[in-house]
Prior knowledge:
Layout: H1 2-20, H2 28-75, H3 80-106
Helix pairs in contact: 2-3
Amino acid sequence: MKRFILIAAMLVTTAVGSVLFAQETQSESTSSVTAAANTAQWKYIAAALAVGIACIAGGIAVGQIGAAAMGAMSENPELSGKALPYAGLAEGICLWGFLVALFILLI
């Protein structure tokens, strides 16, 4: 059921995005200016998607790892030092998304 909702949300987002970014044809003199503006728009959208998807994935990973770590620590308190780095690794996904967004915007 969750997969169906996710696919439906992606289809709706694609449909709405195609309507929002649809443009009328323009003369050749302004086409180069609008092409540069369209490139800038797509750079911002790509950067937002990179950060958004990475942070959502990192949040899901930290939630699952944190729950498993708390369960393991409730049974054996000595595992607290071993479980914490795994949550940090999952948060690293968010940092990679942020770095990719910076590269998209700066290059």
